[in-house]
Amino acid sequence: MKAFMREVINVVIVLALIWFGMYVSSFGFMYLAARWSTEALAHEYQVEKDRIAKRTEPLEYNATDCQVALGQINGSAESERRDAAIEICRYVGAWGDAQTQFELGRMYSEGTYGVAKDQAEANRWFRRAALQNHVPAQYSVMSALYAQAIASNDAEGLFPILEMYGWFCVLEKGLLRVASSPGPAFGTDAERTGKVLTDLRHAFAQGKKAQSFPYRFGVDRMCHGYVQVFYPE
What we know:
- By secondary structure, this protein is an all-alpha fold.
- It has helices spanning about 1-55, 65-75, 80-95, 100-110, 120-130, 135-150, 160-180, 190-210, 215-230.
- Helix content is about 80%, strand content about 0%.
């Protein structure tokens, strides 16, 4: 009987050690995932800044030209005029105008102005605008990551979910900024912007609460890293 009990105790100890090792390794995995993602974002952020900094001569077109050109093709069936207008907007967006980049993202996402819907192209423009701290674009990037995570299995969806939390923390900072200044990001008044922020906070707090402690640790690391990229202390 004593020998049997010793065997049981030994098995329990081994299982406990295995569980503890897996638990500790999950912390390490989450730490590395957050670190790698933050470093990749910091690189993207710097690349976008450098691209804009290289602009040394006045642009052939600007954001106003893009809006005027799009206004002229609204409802028009002339493909040549439409294509020329879209090229003007792509030119302006390529040189770093964040609002034009966001509008291009919406254009490809919704299929407006006669362009074919292309969510991958839309996400590319949203992300470029988001890297310049364009708040609605950051919301669009976060939403795209959520859609990607939902469409993936549990393992493939982990990284989009973690990155989504990082973008939420950046977005939260941006919403606080625009809510206290003229021209809020969502709707026509600060009350609407505040409601968006409140709803997002509630949704993310509930989602985080339902996860394991190592997962919450990874989320916190991701949030801290992403915020530091845009708002370094």
